[in-house]
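From: lab user (bench 3)
To: helpdesk
Subject: output format question, protein + BJW

Hello, I'm new to running complex predictions and I'm not sure whether the block I got back is the full result or only part of it. Here's what I submitted:
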Amino acid sequence: MAGKDSIVILTGAGISKESGLDTFRDKDGIWSKVRLEDVATPDGFRRDPARVQAFYNTRRRNLVEGDIRPNAAHLALARLEREWPGEVLVVTQNIDDLHERAGTENLIHMHGELLKIRCGKCARPFAWSEDLAVDAKCPDCHRTGSLRPHVVWFGEMPLHMDRIFDALARCALFVSIGTSGHVYPAAGFVQTVANQGRAHTIELNLEPSEGASLFRETRMGPASQLVPAFVEELLSR
Ligand code: BJW
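Helpdesk reply: Thanks, we reran it on our side. This is the complete output you should expect:
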């Protein structure tokens, strides 16, 4: 790594686990309690919008009103962005706002944001921190019943993919933190970087992900310990 080299960091639910938010595929994760087909697909929303709104309302309320704070891993990534001389881009699959709260600015939410909603008809996103009712009216086009969480469900296109692939093509270091590697296209980023041939790739996770063998280096443990130590190492070179 040279001074101005750029770094891309992919984060998943594991980075927010120690802040009190559930992951998806761990034993006690979200998909052990609800079927993803019911709450995280456009079909599920069409079938039962009230169930889907209730699912996201509960998670939004927990994020806003619960005792949820950025942990040492989020804070370390914000420090890396402040102190590293080159570009640091955090691409998160998480819809929580813990990276922002920790101070990260160069951030892409590829699966959307829990604190935003959008209109399914006019597509306009709005900041939103309350419960969303099924029959709410779009503040812009005034249609009733068209508002939905601003999240990316299975079968939908993740956000800002051009910017992400451009950053992956240029980076000298790709770091994956707290993601199981089950969900594409994020799970394929390590292969994209490996094909580019120049960058170092490292996984920081509690246990090896689906794509662990594709990384040049893997370190296993809780994000709140691994990430601050890794950032310290990078900055003290
Ligand atoms: C810790 C820790 C601690 C715990 N410290 N670590 C067949 C083959 C390939 C692809 C497909 C296929 N069939 C369909 C697809 C596509 C599909 C897909 O990938 N399906 C798979 C399930 C097979 N993908 C899509 O549909 C996506 N769109 C798409 O592909 O569009 C076309 C396209 C093509 C080409 C280019 C671009 C686009 C959309 C995916 C949308 C995912 N949406 C969700 C819900 C979002 C909103 C919400 O939060 O409700 O996103 S699903 C859910 O999974 C959520 C997450 O962001 C995502 C990833 O989960 P994540 O973060 O990895 O969490 P976990 O729980 O799986 O893992 C946690 C990890 O943390 C574990 O490893 C733990 O060990 C670890 N951990 N504690 C460190 N303390």
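A quick orientation on your result: Residues 133 and 159 are 25 Å apart (CA to CA). Let us know if anything else is unclear.
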